[in-house]
Design goal:
With 383 residues, the chain is an alpha+beta fold. The chain folds into 3 domains: 116 residues, no CATH class; 129 residues, no CATH class; 79 residues, Nuclear Transport Factor 2, Chain: A. Helices cover 54% and strands 14% of the residues. Strands 4-3-2-1-5-6-7-8 form an 8-stranded antiparallel β-sheet. Strand 5 and strand 6 form a beta hairpin. Helix 1 packs antiparallel against helix 6 and helix 7 runs antiparallel to helix 10. The chain is elongated, with a radius of gyration of 25 Å. The protein starts with a helix and ends with a helix. Keywords: Membrane, Transmembrane, Transmembrane helix. Pfam families: PepSY_TM (PF03929). It comes from Flavobacterium flevense.
Length: 383
């Protein structure tokens, strides 16, 4: 009786969320490798040509921002900068303004551009309308089905909740009644010689079991992105379990060698962490708010970081965050992106995440075929 009710729930939640899960899973496959694919397909955007490599110092960040903004339309402002300490890398200046109430993707971004600048010469390598960028469209399709943040996030978020329930009900339905050699073989292996209906059932049942842990991980980390309240609940819950005293990072004195807090702050963090992979700077216009510099210490790992906050009036560090001085909950949620895309363990876990996401995309298809076959069979009985 319990399994019958779970089967009913599994069926209808699958039919309701199947198309969304299919789209989100397929776009997730591309999102896993979007950084690598962009560098591979468009190296002219991201790398300085070898013959033009410079050994001199970079220009001041404030000057580079002025150069980048001069290439934009009137009223468009640089809101974020991605700095790469590597000598052969272009710096990326983002100008983004969104309409949170927009219904379609075409209206969601008022403007979204990236200006690629050689930080040594100040030459603008390219100005990109990122709103039309393939990987940006894929990302927005993954996050909100191109329906804007207000509506699309809601649809995707609740579909992910349904998917999490499908994973749990699925493992209960998969569980063999008796652990005999034949049932064990049928539950853990696919009979590729079977007829189409049986083969489809095996693809749904067996692949669903093997991808279960990844599927649940995708669902939970996706919900953390979709629902801030869910993220806060997990963070606070785990923080309450953490009784250890955290290391308090000392805040050193910062010499004021440049007039701009952006220039001085960047000079300081580059000198303190010359081995950083990337530095992200969200330009803070409100002078009462500290200016943040987020350093990613390992390639494709956002969870290994230092985050410096500089007072915009005095130029001194007001706060310094790293995984070492975060409570358990905050430390776990800081790993959310790495867990979601599989970069937590490098290339091997990214490949596993790609394959698991591909399997997740197949489950709504094979599940729908199972339902369709049963529907046709029931219809024939009634006629």
């Amino acid at each position: 009786m319990v399994k019958k009710k779970l089967l009913w729930l599994h069926k209808w939640l699958g039919l309701l969320s199947g198309l969304v899960v299919l789209i989100v899973s397929l776009t997730g496959c591309l999102t896993v490798f979007q950084d690598e694919l962009q560098l591979l397909t468009h190296p002219e955007k991201f790398f300085i040509e070898k013959q033009n490599l410079q050994s001199s110092r970079t220009l001041a960040l404030s000057k580079l921002i002025t150069i980048a903004e001069a290439k934009l339309n009137p009223g468009e402002k640089i809101s974020r900068v991605e700095v790469f300490p590597q000598k052969d890398r272009i710096w990326i200046f983002r100008a983004v303004k969104t309409n949170k109430d927009a219904f379609f993707y075409s209206d969601y971004f008022t403007y979204h551009k990236r200006v690629f600048v050689n930080p040594y010469s100040g030459n603008v390598q390219m100005v990109e309308n990122t709103k039309e960028n393939f990987f940006q469209i894929v990302l927005q399709l993954h996050m909100n089905l191109l329906l804007g943040k207000k509506y699309g996030h809601f649809v995707v978020g609740f579909s992910v909740i349904f998917f999490a329930v499908l994973c749990i009900t699925g493992i209960v339905l998969w569980w063999p009644k008796k652990w005999k050699p034949k049932t064990i073989k049928n539950s853990f292996s696919i009979n590729f010689k079977a007829k189409r209906k049986r083969l489809n059932y095996d693809l749904h049942n067996v692949l669903g079991f093997y991808s279960l842990l990844f599927a649940l991980l995708f669902a939970i980390t996706g919900l953390i992105f979709a629902f801030p309240a869910f993220k806060k609940a997990i963070s606070n819950g785990l923080n309450s379990l953490d009784k250890k005293e955290k290391e308090t990072l000392s805040l050193p004195f910062v010499p004021q060698t440049a007039a701009s807090v952006l220039d001085n702050g960047l000079n300081y963090v580059l000198a303190a962490h010359p081995d950083a992979d990337q530095i992200s700077i969200r330009i803070e216009k409100d002078l009462t708010e500290p200016q943040g510099f987020q350093l990613r210490m390992e390639k494709n790992r956002t969870g290994v970081f230092y985050w410096y906050f500089f007072d915009q009036k005095k130029g001194q560090i007001t706060e310094l965050k790293s995984p070492d001085n975060l409570q358990l909950g905050n430390r776990v949620t800081s790993l959310n992106y790495d867990l979601h895309v599989g970069s937590i363990g490098g290339m091997y876990t990214k490949i596993l995440a790609f394959l698991a996401s591909l399997v997740c995309a197949s489950l709504p298809v094979t599940g729908f075929i199972i339902w369709l076959n049963k529907y046709k069979k029931a219809k024939l009985r009634k006629s």
